[in-house]
Amino acid sequence: MPSRILTVDDSKTVRIIVRKAFRAFDCEIIEAANGVEGLAAAAASRPDLIILDITMPVMDGVEMLMKLKADPALKPIPVMMLTAEGGREHVLKIAKLGIRDYIVKPFKEDTLVEKVGRIIPLKQTSEIQAKPRSIVDPADILVVDDKPAIVSQIRDGLKHTKWTIHSAVSQAEALEYCAKQTPDLMIVSLSLPDDSAFALYRSVRNNPKSKGTPFFGLTVKTETAMQHAAQQVGITAVITKPIDLIELESKMAKALNLDTSLRYFEIQGDSIIMRLPEACLPAVLTDVGHYMKAKLPEAVDGGINQAIIDVHLLTGVDMGIIRLLMQTTQTCRELGMNYAMVGNPRLTEACREFEDTKEWTFCETTDAAREHLARVAAAAGSRAGFQLA
């Protein structure tokens, strides 16, 4: 939902400047030329913020502010006052009536946007449209570290994704990058000189364009004080060195709120295929289990009645994997789906060590699984024909 801003000023030029300043943001700008119109507009639209000029005909900004604060329904709306250079002291005197900030005319658009962004959330329209939605979408990641080896490690570890890794070696270089474009996520070394990582974090959070950008701190595992400080200021996540790249990718996907189901589920012809990766960490199993509960019913609803559970990359099983596979096969049975599992000889041997899995059989390939399912379907059809006869 767009942020709603009411600008109350008798100068049409100022109102145009305000509208222009927020053109790139998901905002609705409402205009009024004096305090009387402003009160009516505030009551009708209930804006998220009022930008209020002091000197106006009919009813000035001070009187309108007093009436706003006297109305219980309008009192909570934050107000930013506009004043001429000579009126600054006047604004400070009326600040006790309840204003969130003020800005002196003439003002720059960037200054107005920055001040407003501290009061209400601002989302750039272009970012809303371009924001990555799934794990297969492109994304721009900025890594800020003065150690090239770390940047290379992250770039190599994520090269299987469509994420582009950009790099900067200092706070100044990172801010220069952010001035040109807002990254989807930042990974910043907390050991940059002079606490500049924390200064960079404050700059990012104070800028409306990057206010919501996930910000990861990077530090060595033994720097517990640094990790605590990062958590205290609100850094999105702390990644410790040596970097677990699987964990890093998982945390990045979660911070970006990406749909990761395409990693594990795919529709091929008349089958839905569920694939488990070689590294089945607990977070992966949770992820797959969450999506499985929705993806299998969606497949059935779309006319697909068979599933292939591909676990051939696994070299062994544990109780977490077994539990997930049992839930999956049980869900298939409840939905009336035929299913087959694809595995390998080592996996077959591992499953024989568990009571619940010792009878499991695996096809060698997905093609073999399809052939098996075709035979099952044909046999079911024959039985149905025999019963009808």
Main beta sheet strand tally, sense and closure: 5 strands, parallel
Q: What is the element string, with H for helices and E for strands? A: EHEHEHEHEHHEHEHEHEHEHEEHEHEHH
Mean pLDDT: 88
User: How many domains make up the 3D coordinates?
Assistant: 3
CATH topology of the largest domain: Transcription Regulator spoIIAA
Radius of gyration: 29 Å
Spans of at least 5 consecutive residues whose pLDDT stays below 50 are 384-389
Distance between the termini: 61 Å
Structural class: alpha/beta
Just give the CATH class of the largest domain: Alpha Beta
Number of helix segments?
A: 15
Work out the strand percent: 15-25%
Give the helix proportion (percent range).
40-55%
Total number of β-strand segments?
A: 14
| Biggest sheet: strand arrangement | 2-1-3-4-5
The assembly state of the depicted protein chains is single chain
CATH superfamily of the largest domain: STAS domain
Notes on the structure:
- Helix content is 44%, strand content 19%.
- The protein has 389 residues and is an alpha/beta fold.
- The protein has three domains: 3-117, Response regulator (Rossmann fold, 3-Layer(aba) Sandwich); 132-255, Response regulator (Rossmann fold); 261-388, Transcription Regulator spoIIAA.
- The strands form three sheets. Strands 2-1-3-4-5 form a five-stranded parallel sheet.
- Helix 3 (61-70) links the parallel strand 3 (49-53) and strand 4 (79-84).
- The longest helix is centred in the last third of the chain and has 23 residues, at 366-388.
- The N and C termini lie far apart (61 Å).
